[in-house]
Amino acid sequence: MAPAQQASPPPILSVLDTTLVAPSPSAGAAPPESSLPLTFFDVFWLNLPPVERVFFYRLAADADVPAILSNLKTSLSQALHAYYPLAGRLRLTPGTADRYEVYYQPGDGVTFTVAEYRDDVDVDELAIDQPREIIRIAPLAPPLPKGGAVLALQATVMRRGLAIGMAVHHAACDGATSTRFLHTWAAASTGAVGPPPPVIDRTLVKDPTGLYDVFVKAKPTAGEMDRVKTWEHRLLATFTLSKEEIQRVKDVVASEAGRRGATPPRCSSLVATFGFMWSCHQRTKDTGSTGADPTYLLFPVDHRSRMKPPVPEEYLGNCVGIATHAAPMDQLAAAGAGGLFIACTAVAAAIDEAVRGIGSPETVALWMHRVREAGVAGMWTVAGSPRFRVYEVDFGFGRPAKVEIVSVARTGAMAVAEGRSGRGGIEVGISLPAAGMQSFQMCFQDAIDWLHQ
Fold it and tell me: Which residues constitute the domain of residue 227?
Protein backbone atom coordinates (compact mmCIF):
# COMPACT_ATOMS: atom_id res chain seq x y z
CA MET A 1 0.00 0.00 0.00
CA ALA A 2 1.36 3.42 -0.91
CA PRO A 3 2.06 5.67 2.10
CA ALA A 4 -0.45 8.43 2.69
CA GLN A 5 0.76 11.73 1.29
CA GLN A 6 1.30 14.46 3.83
CA ALA A 7 -0.70 17.61 3.16
CA SER A 8 1.37 20.59 2.07
CA PRO A 9 1.47 23.47 4.55
CA PRO A 10 -0.64 26.46 3.59
CA PRO A 11 1.24 29.16 1.66
CA ILE A 12 2.51 32.02 3.80
CA LEU A 13 2.08 34.59 1.01
CA SER A 14 -0.84 35.85 -1.00
CA VAL A 15 0.22 37.03 -4.46
CA LEU A 16 -1.59 40.28 -5.26
CA ASP A 17 -0.10 41.15 -8.64
CA THR A 18 2.52 40.01 -11.14
CA THR A 19 3.78 42.42 -13.79
CA LEU A 20 6.39 42.21 -16.53
CA VAL A 21 8.44 45.41 -16.19
CA ALA A 22 10.29 46.35 -19.37
CA PRO A 23 13.24 48.74 -19.62
CA SER A 24 12.06 52.32 -20.07
CA PRO A 25 12.48 53.64 -23.61
CA SER A 26 14.94 56.35 -24.55
CA ALA A 27 13.86 58.81 -27.24
CA GLY A 28 10.75 56.68 -27.67
CA ALA A 29 12.61 53.46 -28.38
CA ALA A 30 13.35 50.41 -26.26
CA PRO A 31 16.98 49.26 -25.91
CA PRO A 32 18.08 47.43 -29.07
CA GLU A 33 18.12 43.69 -29.53
CA SER A 34 21.41 42.35 -28.19
CA SER A 35 23.29 39.16 -27.40
CA LEU A 36 25.93 38.99 -24.68
CA PRO A 37 28.04 35.85 -25.07
CA LEU A 38 29.02 34.12 -21.85
CA THR A 39 32.72 34.28 -21.01
CA PHE A 40 34.71 31.64 -19.16
CA PHE A 41 33.94 33.58 -15.95
CA ASP A 42 30.19 33.26 -16.66
CA VAL A 43 29.91 29.67 -17.85
CA PHE A 44 31.24 28.36 -14.53
CA TRP A 45 27.88 29.32 -12.96
CA LEU A 46 25.64 28.02 -15.75
CA ASN A 47 24.03 25.14 -13.85
CA LEU A 48 23.98 26.62 -10.38
CA PRO A 49 20.85 27.77 -8.50
CA PRO A 50 20.10 31.51 -8.44
CA VAL A 51 21.40 33.87 -5.77
CA GLU A 52 18.45 35.04 -3.66
CA ARG A 53 18.53 38.15 -1.47
CA VAL A 54 15.83 39.66 0.72
CA PHE A 55 15.89 43.25 2.00
CA PHE A 56 13.64 44.04 4.98
CA TYR A 57 12.44 47.63 5.42
CA ARG A 58 10.46 49.24 8.22
CA LEU A 59 7.66 51.54 7.08
CA ALA A 60 6.10 54.45 8.94
CA ALA A 61 2.59 53.93 10.28
CA ASP A 62 1.22 56.42 7.74
CA ALA A 63 3.24 55.09 4.77
CA ASP A 64 1.35 55.14 1.46
CA VAL A 65 2.03 51.54 0.45
CA PRO A 66 0.26 51.66 -2.96
CA ALA A 67 2.33 54.74 -3.87
CA ILE A 68 5.52 53.00 -2.74
CA LEU A 69 4.75 49.94 -4.86
CA SER A 70 3.90 52.07 -7.88
CA ASN A 71 7.15 54.00 -7.51
CA LEU A 72 9.13 50.77 -7.22
CA LYS A 73 7.75 49.60 -10.58
CA THR A 74 8.37 52.93 -12.31
CA SER A 75 11.92 53.24 -11.00
CA LEU A 76 12.61 49.58 -11.84
CA SER A 77 11.79 50.31 -15.46
CA GLN A 78 14.16 53.29 -15.38
CA ALA A 79 16.99 51.24 -13.85
CA LEU A 80 16.50 48.48 -16.42
CA HIS A 81 17.09 50.99 -19.21
CA ALA A 82 20.80 50.91 -18.34
CA TYR A 83 20.77 47.26 -17.24
CA TYR A 84 18.57 45.98 -20.08
CA PRO A 85 20.47 42.65 -20.46
CA LEU A 86 19.01 41.66 -17.08
CA ALA A 87 15.56 41.82 -18.70
CA GLY A 88 16.69 39.21 -21.24
CA ARG A 89 17.10 35.47 -20.99
CA LEU A 90 19.85 32.91 -20.95
CA ARG A 91 19.91 30.64 -23.99
CA LEU A 92 22.07 28.42 -26.14
CA THR A 93 23.40 30.56 -28.96
CA PRO A 94 21.53 29.51 -32.15
CA GLY A 95 23.60 27.29 -34.44
CA THR A 96 26.04 26.24 -31.69
CA ALA A 97 26.39 23.21 -29.45
CA ASP A 98 27.97 24.75 -26.36
CA ARG A 99 27.98 28.55 -26.74
CA TYR A 100 25.60 30.40 -24.43
CA GLU A 101 24.42 33.99 -24.32
CA VAL A 102 22.17 36.44 -22.53
CA TYR A 103 19.72 37.48 -25.25
CA TYR A 104 17.53 40.59 -25.03
CA GLN A 105 14.92 41.81 -27.49
CA PRO A 106 12.44 44.70 -27.21
CA GLY A 107 9.40 43.54 -25.28
CA ASP A 108 11.42 41.53 -22.75
CA GLY A 109 11.08 42.46 -19.10
CA VAL A 110 11.62 41.45 -15.50
CA THR A 111 8.83 39.76 -13.54
CA PHE A 112 7.85 41.96 -10.59
CA THR A 113 5.57 40.30 -8.05
CA VAL A 114 3.60 42.05 -5.32
CA ALA A 115 2.62 39.80 -2.42
CA GLU A 116 1.27 40.06 1.10
CA TYR A 117 2.48 38.09 4.10
CA ARG A 118 -0.37 36.21 5.73
CA ASP A 119 -1.06 35.92 9.47
CA ASP A 120 -0.31 39.58 10.20
CA VAL A 121 3.45 39.02 10.57
CA ASP A 122 5.41 42.08 11.75
CA VAL A 123 8.62 42.98 9.94
CA ASP A 124 10.54 42.88 13.23
CA GLU A 125 9.65 39.22 13.68
CA LEU A 126 11.74 38.38 10.61
CA ALA A 127 14.36 41.17 10.48
CA ILE A 128 16.34 39.85 13.45
CA ASP A 129 19.65 38.08 14.05
CA GLN A 130 18.21 35.19 16.06
CA PRO A 131 17.54 31.86 14.31
CA ARG A 132 14.36 31.79 12.22
CA GLU A 133 12.87 29.01 10.14
CA ILE A 134 14.03 29.41 6.55
CA ILE A 135 10.56 28.49 5.27
CA ARG A 136 9.30 31.79 6.76
CA ILE A 137 11.83 33.83 4.75
CA ALA A 138 12.68 31.94 1.55
CA PRO A 139 9.30 32.70 -0.17
CA LEU A 140 10.12 36.41 0.04
CA ALA A 141 12.58 35.88 -2.83
CA PRO A 142 10.77 35.01 -6.08
CA PRO A 143 11.58 32.01 -8.27
CA LEU A 144 13.16 32.70 -11.63
CA PRO A 145 10.50 32.26 -14.33
CA LYS A 146 11.05 29.37 -16.71
CA GLY A 147 12.47 30.05 -20.15
CA GLY A 148 15.90 31.37 -19.17
CA ALA A 149 15.01 34.49 -17.13
CA VAL A 150 18.05 35.87 -15.30
CA LEU A 151 16.34 38.25 -12.86
CA ALA A 152 13.09 38.29 -10.86
CA LEU A 153 11.94 40.73 -8.17
CA GLN A 154 9.26 40.73 -5.51
CA ALA A 155 7.83 43.20 -3.00
CA THR A 156 6.03 41.63 -0.03
CA VAL A 157 3.91 43.78 2.25
CA MET A 158 3.78 42.91 5.94
CA ARG A 159 2.79 44.67 9.12
CA ARG A 160 4.93 47.81 9.60
CA GLY A 161 7.25 46.84 6.78
CA LEU A 162 8.12 45.70 3.30
CA ALA A 163 10.44 42.98 2.01
CA ILE A 164 12.10 43.32 -1.40
CA GLY A 165 13.31 40.00 -2.74
CA MET A 166 15.64 39.35 -5.66
CA ALA A 167 16.63 36.21 -7.55
CA VAL A 168 19.45 36.48 -10.09
CA HIS A 169 21.13 33.84 -12.24
CA HIS A 170 24.85 33.94 -11.48
CA ALA A 171 25.75 33.12 -15.11
CA ALA A 172 24.38 36.55 -16.11
CA CYS A 173 26.37 38.59 -13.60
CA ASP A 174 28.23 38.49 -10.31
CA GLY A 175 27.38 40.07 -6.98
CA ALA A 176 29.19 43.30 -7.81
CA THR A 177 26.93 43.82 -10.84
CA SER A 178 23.66 42.71 -9.24
CA THR A 179 24.12 44.91 -6.17
CA ARG A 180 25.23 47.84 -8.33
CA PHE A 181 21.93 47.37 -10.18
CA LEU A 182 20.08 47.53 -6.85
CA HIS A 183 21.84 50.80 -5.98
CA THR A 184 20.83 52.14 -9.41
CA TRP A 185 17.20 51.10 -8.85
CA ALA A 186 17.17 52.70 -5.40
CA ALA A 187 18.62 55.94 -6.78
CA ALA A 188 15.97 56.02 -9.51
CA SER A 189 13.33 55.52 -6.83
CA THR A 190 14.47 58.55 -4.81
CA GLY A 191 15.73 60.80 -7.60
CA ALA A 192 19.27 60.65 -6.23
CA VAL A 193 22.39 60.45 -8.36
CA GLY A 194 23.01 56.77 -9.03
CA PRO A 195 26.22 54.84 -9.73
CA PRO A 196 27.85 55.20 -13.16
CA PRO A 197 26.05 53.14 -15.83
CA PRO A 198 27.21 49.59 -16.47
CA VAL A 199 29.80 48.79 -19.12
CA ILE A 200 28.15 46.25 -21.44
CA ASP A 201 31.05 44.81 -23.45
CA ARG A 202 32.03 41.16 -23.12
CA THR A 203 35.09 41.67 -25.36
CA LEU A 204 36.78 43.23 -22.33
CA VAL A 205 37.36 39.74 -20.92
CA LYS A 206 40.14 38.30 -23.03
CA ASP A 207 40.41 34.56 -23.58
CA PRO A 208 43.36 33.92 -25.90
CA THR A 209 43.98 30.38 -24.62
CA GLY A 210 40.41 29.07 -24.92
CA LEU A 211 39.48 28.84 -21.24
CA TYR A 212 35.79 28.91 -22.22
CA ASP A 213 36.18 25.54 -23.92
CA VAL A 214 37.87 24.11 -20.81
CA PHE A 215 35.17 25.45 -18.50
CA VAL A 216 32.10 24.58 -20.56
CA LYS A 217 33.21 20.94 -20.73
CA ALA A 218 34.02 20.72 -17.01
CA LYS A 219 31.35 23.01 -15.53
CA PRO A 220 29.94 21.69 -12.26
CA THR A 221 26.44 20.30 -12.18
CA ALA A 222 23.77 21.71 -9.89
CA GLY A 223 24.08 18.58 -7.78
CA GLU A 224 27.80 19.13 -7.23
CA MET A 225 27.37 22.69 -5.97
CA ASP A 226 23.96 22.42 -4.28
CA ARG A 227 25.39 21.23 -0.98
CA VAL A 228 22.13 21.02 0.98
CA LYS A 229 19.46 18.50 0.03
CA THR A 230 16.80 19.15 2.69
CA TRP A 231 16.94 22.91 3.20
CA GLU A 232 13.28 23.32 4.21
CA HIS A 233 13.95 22.28 7.83
CA ARG A 234 16.89 24.62 8.35
CA LEU A 235 17.22 27.79 10.39
CA LEU A 236 18.83 31.08 9.35
CA ALA A 237 20.71 33.31 11.81
CA THR A 238 23.17 36.21 11.70
CA PHE A 239 26.42 36.53 13.64
CA THR A 240 28.32 39.81 13.79
CA LEU A 241 31.97 40.52 14.48
CA SER A 242 32.55 44.10 15.62
CA LYS A 243 35.46 46.16 14.38
CA GLU A 244 37.14 45.71 17.75
CA GLU A 245 36.66 41.93 17.69
CA ILE A 246 38.08 41.73 14.17
CA GLN A 247 41.14 43.67 15.32
CA ARG A 248 41.49 41.30 18.26
CA VAL A 249 41.52 38.34 15.85
CA LYS A 250 44.29 40.04 13.86
CA ASP A 251 46.31 40.63 17.04
CA VAL A 252 45.85 37.02 18.20
CA VAL A 253 46.98 35.66 14.82
CA ALA A 254 50.06 37.90 14.76
CA SER A 255 50.96 36.89 18.33
CA GLU A 256 50.51 33.19 17.58
CA ALA A 257 52.70 33.52 14.48
CA GLY A 258 55.43 35.02 16.66
CA ARG A 259 55.08 32.24 19.20
CA ARG A 260 55.46 29.66 16.42
CA GLY A 261 58.33 31.51 14.77
CA ALA A 262 56.25 31.77 11.61
CA THR A 263 55.67 34.65 9.21
CA PRO A 264 52.31 36.19 10.11
CA PRO A 265 49.72 35.94 7.33
CA ARG A 266 48.25 39.05 5.69
CA CYS A 267 45.27 39.32 7.99
CA SER A 268 42.78 41.80 6.54
CA SER A 269 39.38 42.28 8.17
CA LEU A 270 37.89 39.83 5.68
CA VAL A 271 40.61 37.24 6.33
CA ALA A 272 40.05 37.61 10.09
CA THR A 273 36.28 37.20 9.70
CA PHE A 274 36.50 34.21 7.36
CA GLY A 275 39.09 32.57 9.60
CA PHE A 276 37.10 33.12 12.79
CA MET A 277 33.86 31.78 11.31
CA TRP A 278 35.54 28.83 9.55
CA SER A 279 37.21 27.68 12.76
CA CYS A 280 33.91 27.95 14.67
CA HIS A 281 32.06 26.10 11.91
CA GLN A 282 34.54 23.24 11.91
CA ARG A 283 34.38 23.00 15.70
CA THR A 284 30.62 22.37 15.54
CA LYS A 285 31.05 19.36 13.24
CA ASP A 286 31.38 15.79 14.38
CA THR A 287 32.59 14.00 11.26
CA GLY A 288 34.69 11.26 12.79
CA SER A 289 37.55 12.31 10.52
CA THR A 290 41.19 12.12 11.52
CA GLY A 291 43.40 15.14 11.95
CA ALA A 292 45.16 14.45 8.66
CA ASP A 293 41.94 14.93 6.70
CA PRO A 294 41.77 18.31 4.92
CA THR A 295 38.75 20.55 4.65
CA TYR A 296 38.47 23.55 2.34
CA LEU A 297 37.15 27.10 2.37
CA LEU A 298 36.10 28.32 -1.09
CA PHE A 299 35.23 31.95 -1.82
CA PRO A 300 35.05 34.37 -4.77
CA VAL A 301 37.70 36.98 -5.57
CA ASP A 302 36.93 39.93 -7.86
CA HIS A 303 39.53 40.17 -10.63
CA ARG A 304 38.36 43.30 -12.49
CA SER A 305 41.37 45.38 -11.45
CA ARG A 306 43.77 42.46 -11.95
CA MET A 307 42.92 41.60 -15.54
CA LYS A 308 45.33 42.66 -18.28
CA PRO A 309 44.19 45.13 -19.35
CA PRO A 310 42.03 45.91 -16.29
CA VAL A 311 38.26 45.49 -16.62
CA PRO A 312 36.17 48.51 -15.49
CA GLU A 313 34.47 48.29 -12.10
CA GLU A 314 31.17 48.90 -13.90
CA TYR A 315 31.57 45.85 -16.17
CA LEU A 316 28.26 43.96 -16.42
CA GLY A 317 28.90 40.24 -16.07
CA ASN A 318 31.08 37.95 -14.03
CA CYS A 319 34.68 38.75 -13.27
CA VAL A 320 35.23 36.67 -10.16
CA GLY A 321 37.51 33.73 -9.71
CA ILE A 322 37.76 30.99 -7.13
CA ALA A 323 40.03 31.16 -4.10
CA THR A 324 40.39 28.00 -2.04
CA HIS A 325 42.77 26.44 0.42
CA ALA A 326 42.76 23.47 2.74
CA ALA A 327 43.39 23.17 6.46
CA PRO A 328 43.67 20.04 8.63
CA MET A 329 40.32 19.49 10.35
CA ASP A 330 41.61 18.99 13.88
CA GLN A 331 43.96 21.99 13.79
CA LEU A 332 41.26 24.19 12.25
CA ALA A 333 38.81 23.18 14.97
CA ALA A 334 41.19 23.92 17.83
CA ALA A 335 39.83 26.50 20.25
CA GLY A 336 41.75 29.69 20.91
CA ALA A 337 44.75 31.07 19.09
CA GLY A 338 45.75 27.81 17.40
CA GLY A 339 42.56 27.39 15.38
CA LEU A 340 42.45 31.07 14.42
CA PHE A 341 46.06 31.00 13.21
CA ILE A 342 45.51 27.90 11.07
CA ALA A 343 42.28 29.28 9.60
CA CYS A 344 43.55 32.78 8.83
CA THR A 345 46.82 31.45 7.39
CA ALA A 346 44.85 29.22 4.99
CA VAL A 347 42.46 32.03 3.98
CA ALA A 348 45.34 34.44 3.33
CA ALA A 349 47.14 31.77 1.28
CA ALA A 350 43.98 31.21 -0.79
CA ILE A 351 43.83 34.93 -1.65
CA ASP A 352 47.55 35.10 -2.50
CA GLU A 353 47.28 32.08 -4.79
CA ALA A 354 44.14 33.45 -6.49
CA VAL A 355 45.71 36.86 -7.12
CA ARG A 356 48.91 35.37 -8.50
CA GLY A 357 47.07 32.74 -10.51
CA ILE A 358 44.81 35.07 -12.52
CA GLY A 359 47.80 35.88 -14.73
CA SER A 360 48.31 32.23 -15.58
CA PRO A 361 45.77 30.54 -17.90
CA GLU A 362 47.12 27.19 -16.78
CA THR A 363 46.25 27.99 -13.16
CA VAL A 364 42.80 29.33 -14.07
CA ALA A 365 42.10 26.18 -16.07
CA LEU A 366 42.50 24.18 -12.84
CA TRP A 367 39.63 26.01 -11.06
CA MET A 368 37.13 23.28 -11.86
CA HIS A 369 39.50 20.57 -10.68
CA ARG A 370 40.10 22.40 -7.41
CA VAL A 371 36.36 22.88 -6.81
CA ARG A 372 35.74 19.17 -7.31
CA GLU A 373 38.70 18.27 -5.10
CA ALA A 374 37.34 20.51 -2.35
CA GLY A 375 33.83 19.12 -2.81
CA VAL A 376 35.02 15.56 -2.31
CA ALA A 377 37.11 16.39 0.76
CA GLY A 378 34.54 18.73 2.30
CA MET A 379 34.24 22.46 1.83
CA TRP A 380 32.50 25.57 3.10
CA THR A 381 31.71 28.34 0.62
CA VAL A 382 31.09 32.08 0.85
CA ALA A 383 28.44 34.32 -0.72
CA GLY A 384 28.34 38.12 -0.68
CA SER A 385 30.88 40.76 0.29
CA PRO A 386 31.08 43.80 2.60
CA ARG A 387 32.06 45.82 -0.49
CA PHE A 388 28.53 45.53 -1.90
CA ARG A 389 27.17 48.03 0.70
CA VAL A 390 23.79 46.31 0.80
CA TYR A 391 22.74 48.34 3.85
CA GLU A 392 22.91 51.52 1.75
CA VAL A 393 20.16 50.37 -0.66
CA ASP A 394 17.52 52.99 0.25
CA PHE A 395 14.41 53.25 -1.92
CA GLY A 396 13.18 56.35 -0.13
CA PHE A 397 11.81 54.79 3.04
CA GLY A 398 15.06 54.30 4.92
CA ARG A 399 17.98 51.91 5.02
CA PRO A 400 17.27 48.19 5.27
CA ALA A 401 16.54 46.85 8.73
CA LYS A 402 18.06 43.53 7.65
CA VAL A 403 19.48 41.91 4.51
CA GLU A 404 19.63 38.15 3.99
CA ILE A 405 21.07 35.92 1.29
CA VAL A 406 18.41 33.24 1.67
CA SER A 407 19.92 30.98 -1.01
CA VAL A 408 22.63 29.96 1.50
CA ALA A 409 20.01 27.62 2.94
CA ARG A 410 20.38 25.60 -0.28
CA THR A 411 24.12 25.99 -0.84
CA GLY A 412 25.26 25.77 2.78
CA ALA A 413 27.46 28.86 2.29
CA MET A 414 28.07 31.65 4.76
CA ALA A 415 26.59 34.97 3.66
CA VAL A 416 28.81 38.00 4.23
CA ALA A 417 27.86 41.70 4.40
CA GLU A 418 29.01 44.87 6.08
CA GLY A 419 27.73 45.32 9.63
CA ARG A 420 24.50 47.30 9.51
CA SER A 421 25.48 49.46 12.47
CA GLY A 422 27.94 51.27 10.18
CA ARG A 423 30.73 50.98 12.76
CA GLY A 424 33.10 48.78 10.76
CA GLY A 425 31.91 45.32 11.73
CA ILE A 426 31.07 42.41 9.42
CA GLU A 427 27.97 40.24 9.68
CA VAL A 428 27.68 36.64 8.57
CA GLY A 429 24.50 34.70 7.84
CA ILE A 430 24.52 30.98 8.59
CA SER A 431 21.88 28.35 7.78
CA LEU A 432 21.91 25.07 9.71
CA PRO A 433 19.50 22.48 11.10
CA ALA A 434 18.26 23.24 14.62
CA ALA A 435 20.81 21.05 16.44
CA GLY A 436 23.69 22.36 14.34
CA MET A 437 22.57 25.95 14.88
CA GLN A 438 22.50 25.51 18.64
CA SER A 439 26.00 24.05 18.55
CA PHE A 440 27.28 26.85 16.31
CA GLN A 441 25.78 29.52 18.58
CA MET A 442 27.61 28.02 21.57
CA CYS A 443 30.93 27.78 19.69
CA PHE A 444 30.60 31.32 18.38
CA GLN A 445 29.79 32.78 21.80
CA ASP A 446 32.64 30.83 23.46
CA ALA A 447 35.06 32.16 20.86
CA ILE A 448 33.81 35.74 21.31
CA ASP A 449 34.12 35.43 25.09
CA TRP A 450 37.66 34.13 24.65
CA LEU A 451 38.54 37.14 22.47
CA HIS A 452 37.39 39.48 25.24
CA GLN A 453 39.47 37.83 27.96
Answer: 223-451
